[in-house]
Amino acid sequence: MKTNKTFKTVALLTLTTASAGLMGTANAAPSIRLNGQPLATSSRPILMNGRTLVPMRDIFEALGATVNYNAYTRGITAKRGSTDVNLQIGNRTAQVDGNNSYLDQAPLVRRGVTYVPLRFVSNALGANVAWNGNTQRVSISTNGSVGGGSQVAGYRTISVPAGAVVPVTLDKTLSSATARVGDRFTATVKSERLGDSEFPAGSKVEGVVSEAQPRNGGNPGVLDLDFRNVVLPDGNRVPLRGELIALDNESVTSTSQGRIMARSNARSNSDRLKVIGIGAGAGFLLGRVLKKDGILPTILGGVGGLLYDMQKNKDKAREAVLPANTEFGVRLNSSLAYNDATGYYNERINYVNN
User: Cα torsion for 120, 116, 59, 135, to the nearest 10°?
Assistant: First the structure.
């Protein structure tokens, strides 16, 4: 019995080793940055035989190319400007503008996702790729720049600074009576003129409820919201970190560059702007909730000032409600940059210049 167990163990190890040799070695891929910003991908990149592979559509579209996949021939065709790139699943020979190129690692399909070699695709489309072994990071940089964005053919990068405010309208009603921490919601970027917002009209900012306290006796309802991503009209998702802000003159200001920026006194590191259920008005109150004596919160209104004594104002306590189509601002807590191949960059520049 001992001999059989040993034999089975050796046989299993031999089979595993042989399978690894046939399939190639896959490990966790390094981090990837495009023009200094994290490259957002629908699935995690993979490392195969020392080569980083990324989801096909994510990398081609990030570099401003259109891409198509033929399920019958397993062929991948991509075009950006006058450049044509052709690859095939499992084939280590590719073509760039009709000329053969040989790949260290062929494109492959894993769990329904088509992966292509990052360095080859980037170089084929005119980008530079650098590897930093100390940080385990791949950096992709594109050539040329116009204004605040980088350009590769029709692709440009739009940069947005920390403190910028994006006006949005809520897509569905949120209430402290029914909301739960972790609930997700969206708000649509508001735009009245071409190029007047940090993101194209129709973009969706994705948020999550980070605090939800229903009304309790004289305690008003409270909602706190975080914003995590913006989904552009072309489907690209851009990570962001943002929070709620009012759009009144005491909270925001317009700049000569066509931006709406949070005023320096509109946010304190020690508190956050939240939705407070006070009064019976049709609107909503944005306020900062501070602890008082460790028991009762003091609510400081976002506009003007309001001290709310729950012992004396129990009849004014309401649920915190943000009706659908409510307009408010999303304040960016950190800078970001996103790739634009739709022409919005030009609309933004025209708006700023005019």
Answer: -70
Do 163 and 120 lie in a common domain? no
Cβ neighbours around 187 below 10 Å, total: 27
Tell me: do 177 and 43 sit in the same domain.
Answer: no
Do 103 and 234 lie in a common domain? no
- The closest alpha carbon to 51, from 74, 86, 24, belongs to 24
Instruction: Identify the bridge partners of residue 167 per DSSP, sorted by sequence position.
Output: 329
> What is the H or E stretch that residue 340 is in?
strand 336-340
Asked if the structure places residue 8 within a domain, the reply is no
User: Is 163 found in the same domain as 137?
Assistant: no
Q: Answer yes or no: do 34 and 170 share one domain.
A: no
DSSP 266-294: S--TT--EEEE-BSS-SS-EEEEEEEETT
Report whether pLDDT(147) > 60: no
Ramachandran category for residue 54: left, alpha or beta (phi over 0 → left; psi -120 to 50 → alpha): beta
pTM for this model (two decimals): 0.55
Give the three-state DSSP class for 312: coil
Q: What is the pLDDT of residues 57-76, one digit of tens each?
A: 888 888 888 888 888 899 99
Instruction: Give the separation between CA 127 and CA 101, rounded to whole angstroms.
Output: 16
Cβ atoms of 159 and 335 closer than 8 Å:
yes
Distance CA 206, CA 78 (A): 30
Per-residue model confidence as pLDDT tens digits over 20-32: 333 344 556 778 8
